[in-house]
Design a protein that fits this description.
Elements: E1 11-16, E2 35-41, H1 45-55, E3 59-61, H2 64-69, E4 74-77, H3 84-93, E5 97-101, H4 108-121, E6 125-128, H5 135-145, E7 153-161, H6 164-169, H7 180-183, H8 187-203, E8 207-215, E9 227-234, E10 239-245, E11 250-257, E12 260-265, E13 269-274, E14 278-279, E15 284-285, E16 292-294, H9 311-321, H10 329-348, E17 352-353
Parallel strand pairs: 1-2, 1-4, 2-3, 4-5, 5-6, 7-10
Antiparallel strand pairs: 7-11, 8-9, 8-17, 9-10, 11-12, 12-13, 13-16, 14-15
């Protein structure tokens, strides 16, 4: 990754969506070199004004038209799923590049429409995937692209779960995450796309078909599923399992290959087994043929401005230099094609094929 280059022309940015999870990463915009925040937009004027003060923005408003009219190079869109297509399309058509919070949209049809709008606009659209902030994954990706220490991947197991659905169900307010209409589903559409994309990005493997099931077991106020799991096949013939949940804690990524295996637990503990030595900036595997455990391997903070892999800094650099973003619009479309197959399978009870276009 290159260090963000300061150039003579300032980078002008508008922020659409100033609350919720976005509060964890938006402060990084205070430190992007030679840039300025032109406007902060949010349905809650107080949230827009608060972020505008934090980032030194020129304007704060509840009106998207302010962002559309603004003289800016790109927009950061961190709003609920049901607003993505309308807002991103308007911003693209106004001549701005767009960095869009995942997922791309609620459904595959919407994603296809947004992708078409992006292509027609001639502007760049990227998807924000927070997992790519972590330098560990970039080092592993480089290793897998060369002579992979794990050999051929036979199986991948992934889980992403938290108890947010249980906590939300106890709140008096009606949250947009409760609505299937506003999210496009439930826990899977909100969480699953992380690992759908990550699997393809890290290993270069696509999911070719899935058999899925969904349920709502414990989150009565949530219209969509609070748990989902699927099994699937990979483009190399290997198998994949993915589960997500809003009703229980626990996260893991496990890669099992013919020459070695790697398991990462709860964003902290890494275990490696292999036939060859393997050294990175994060671990040094040298006890061949045995499991070696490395503790304290944690992702960086989302607003860490010193992190060279921070995806907001990386997108700013891509726009400034005219290069492709880490996650391009077409990749968001591919993610939604997998998500569509997962929901179709959960309804039909059958294996569903995935065709990438």
């Amino acid at each position: 990754m290159n260090t963000l280059t300061q150039q003579s022309n300032p980078l002008r940015i508008v922020v659409v969506g100033c609350g919720g999870f976005a509060r964890n990463y938006l402060p990084v915009y205070r430190s992007i070199p030679n840039s300025s925040i032109v406007a902060c937009i949010d349905a809650d004027l107080t949230a827009a004004q608060a972020l505008a003060t934090t980032l030194g923005a020129e304007m704060a408003s509840t009106d998207l038209a302010v962002a559309v009219r603004a003289e800016a190079d790109y927009a950061v869109v961190s709003t609920p799923n049901f607003l993505h297509v309308e807002q991103a399309t308007a911003l693209l058509q106004s001549g701005k590049h767009v960095l869009l919070q995942k997922p791309m949209a609620r459904w595959l049809g919407e994603s296809q429409a947004l992708f078409a709008a992006q292509r027609a606009s001639g502007r760049t659209m990227g998807l924000y995937m927070s997992m790519l902030d972590f330098g560990l994954w970039w080092e592993l990706k480089q290793a897998f692209a060369a002579d992979s220490p794990l050999g051929s991947i036979a199986q991948v197991s992934m889980r992403l779960g938290h108890t947010g659905g249980l906590l939300w169900s106890k709140q008096p307010n009606q949250l947009w995450r409760f609505s299937r209409e506003k999210t496009g589903g439930g826990a899977f559409i909100m969480l699953g796309v992380h690992y759908i994309h990550f699997l393809r990005w890290l290993l270069g493997l696509r999911i070719t078909r899935v058999l899925a099931q969904t349920a709502n077991l414990h989150c009565g106020r949530v219209e969509g599923e609070d748990i989902c799991q699927f099994q699937g096949e990979l483009s190399n013939g290997g198998f994949v399992q993915l589960s997500v949940a809003w009703n229980s804690q626990g996260e893991h990524l496990a890669l099992y290959g013919t020459e070695g295996s790697l398991v990462y637990l709860d964003n902290e503990l890494l275990r490696v087994h292999g036939a060859a030595a393997w050294k990175t900036s994060y671990f040094n595997y040298e006890k061949l043929g045995t499991w070696q455990t490395f503790a304290g391997i944690v992702p960086p903070k989302l607003d860490d401005s010193s992190n060279p892999y921070n995806q907001h800094r990386a997108f700013a650099e891509a726009i400034r230099l005219g290069t492709a973003p880490s996650v391009e619009a077409v990749e968001g479309l591919w993610d939604m094609q997998v998500a569509d197959a997962v929901y179709r399978s959960a309804t039909s009870g059958r294996w569903e094929e995935i065709s990438y276009v």
